[in-house]
Write a structure and sequence with these properties.
Radius of gyration: 27 Å
Mean pLDDT: 84
Helix content: 55-70%
Low-confidence stretches: 233-252
Number of helices: 17
Oligomer: single chain
Number of strands: 8
């Protein structure tokens, strides 16, 4: 390949990485955490004090008592087949509406047969981490943030293509090269190339699916416009006659099949589909209907942890299966494949752990890309006999430290805060957001004020302490009658956080050594540290 062409692709790869790299770090780090959103939600949410779920055979009795006692459950209520730590009740319902959802309530029968209703105060911290992932950390409304995320994803795709082209001439020689030594830039380049090449399929999937998700609304709006143009040419038909008036609220349950019978009929229509829940709905226009969720490990799923379908709760017939694994048509199966590949919602725990590790490796890939650019700038400045780094290099070095470590510390502290904040506050989600962005902005400001070298080790210690606060919270919060511990979820979340804290502490020590003993003309050198 001609040298000038290769240089052009290297410049494109470098500048695209600089522009999008820090946003992509947030997306990948937060995305790695969302691989275990359900255990994280369980870790952060207080257990509900409720009686054990009744058997499915007694569920009609529970439904009848709830509908008599709680008018707010009559529009829609959910029967759970897969009860456990995540959902301890057989029946639940959520008040409010889709735009402004209210609290969720759980219902059970006491040993004496009396109705017991408790409020479920689920923590929104996992949802916040998912929003950070989707919106690359931007504190904007979704309609504004998603197109920006789409542009970042397009730059990400350009970086992938240009990076592969840059690596091709030396691919055979440098494929498995990992050279540790005095040449720090060579070591970072080897790590960057190795991670990028061996995770290339993963990054291609992420780039393509992220662009589709970002412009999802625009794509469907264009499809809807085309459909409306075609539909306008079809002869108008007379509107259907008005439906019957809405029946009394308690009649909503009459004529619908019991959960046990619905489970039997769904199993006959969709063998291999493990039913998790059925939501019974009733309104004047559509009458009795329902939604079901479940999993089928043989297929990918539309949502991160489940597939869904619509049913007629009077007959048990599946009326809409566009998002039901194993019963989709070619188009919706293709659409679901994008979601499944992005979410890792196939293959069980092994795929989730793989995606978690690949997500962390991806975050490191973008971090190392910025380091390489800074080291390249330092070499150029040395050739020009300039020992003093330019302002642009110093600012980028500070942002390369502040943005990733502010993200890490902010996420860790807002997770740890879940067991200390009052869960029944209506604005608890806003409080988690304030904690994250306060820590994030403070870290970025500290890095800009202190410089990359000094703030690097300092903020790594902050990240280590913030991450260590997660398992410490599990240990200390029960002392103040504030905390709890869920088997399974606590071991997973606290164990991963402990390993992360140890890793950040090791990196903090290495960053300090680099600041003291590294080249004096480096942006990572801190002369004041060297003299103390």
């Amino acid at each position: 390949m001609r040298t000038d062409i290769l240089k052009t692709y290297k410049d494109v790869h470098s500048w695209v990485g600089i522009i999008a790299g820090l946003a992509l770090f947030i997306a990948f780090y937060a995305g790695a955490i969302t691989m275990f959103a359900e255990p994280l939600n369980r870790w952060a949410s207080a257990p509900a004090s409720i009686a054990p779920p009744p058997s499915l055979d007694r569920t009609p009795e529970l439904i009848a008592k709830v509908l008599r006692a709680r008018p707010d459950a009559r529009a829609a209520y959910t029967v759970h087949f897969d009860t456990g730590p995540d959902m301890p009740a057989r029946l639940s319902w959520t008040t409010g509406n889709r735009r402004a959802p209210g609290p969720t309530f759980l219902a059970a029968l006491t040993p004496e047969g009396a109705l017991q209703v408790v409020r479920q105060d689920a923590s929104p911290v996992a949802e916040l981490v998912d929003v950070l992932h989707q919106q690359v950390g931007l504190p904007l409304d979704r309609r504004t943030a998603m197109p920006i995320m789409g542009l970042v994803s397009l730059l990400y795709a350009v970086a992938i293509v240009s990076g592969v082209i840059c690596l091709l001439p030396s691919l055979a020689k440098d494929l498995f090269a990992l050279r540790f030594g005095k040449n720090i830039k060579r070591m970072w380049l080897d790590l960057h190339n190795l991670l990028g090449l061996f995770s290339l399929p993963f990054h291609i999937v992420m780039a393509v699916t992220a662009v589709i998700f970002a412009f999802h609304d625009q794509i469907y709006a264009a499809q809807g416009a085309v459909y409306r143009v075609g539909a306008a040419r079809v002869e108008r038909r007379a509107p259907p006659p008005p439906g019957p008036p809405e029946p009394p609220a308690l009649e909503a349950v009459q004529g619908t099949l019991s959960p046990v019978e619905l489970q039997r009929r769904i199993a006959a229509q969709a063998p291999g589909f493990a039913l998790r829940s059925i939501t019974y709905r009733h309104d004047a226009k559509s009458g009795a209907q329902g939604d079901l969720t479940g999993v089928d490990q043989r297929y990918g799923m539309r949502a991160p942890t489940y597939g869904r379908a619509e049913i007629d709760t009077r007959t048990g017939a599946i009326t809409e299966a566009d998002y039901m694994p194993g019963r989709q048509g070619p188009w919706f199966a293709a659409v679901t494949s994008f979601f499944a590949l992005h979410f890792g919602s196939f293959g069980g725990a092994s795929v989730r752990w793989s995606y978690f590790l690949l997500g962390l490796a991806g975050a490191f890939l973008f971090y190392s890309g910025n380091l390489l650019w800074i080291e390249s700038r330092r070499r150029k400045e040395r050739k020009a006999a300039m020992v003093e780094q330019t302002r642009a290099t110093r600012i980028l070095g500070s942002l390369t430290v502040g943005v990733p470590l502010g993200c890490v510390a902010g996420i860790s502290l807002t997770i740890a805060a879940a067991k200390w904040l009052p869960a029944d506050r209506a604005d608890i989600g806003a409080w988690h957001g304030r904690i994250y962005y306060l820590v994030f902005v403070a870290a970025v400001a500290w890095a800009l004020i202190r410089g990359a070298a000094r703030s690097g080790s300092e903020l790594l210690w902050v990240a280590a302490g913030a991450t260590a606060a997660i398992p410490l919270t599990t240990l200390l919060s029960p002392i103040f009658a504030q905390g709890w511990s869920h088997p399974g979820a606590s071991q997973l979340v606290d164990g991963v956080a402990t390993l992360g804290a140890i890793g950040f502490a090791i990196m903090a020590r290495a960053a300090r050594r680099r600041a003291v003993a590294g080249p004096r003309d480096s942006v990572w050198a801190a002369p004041r540290i060297a003299t103390t």
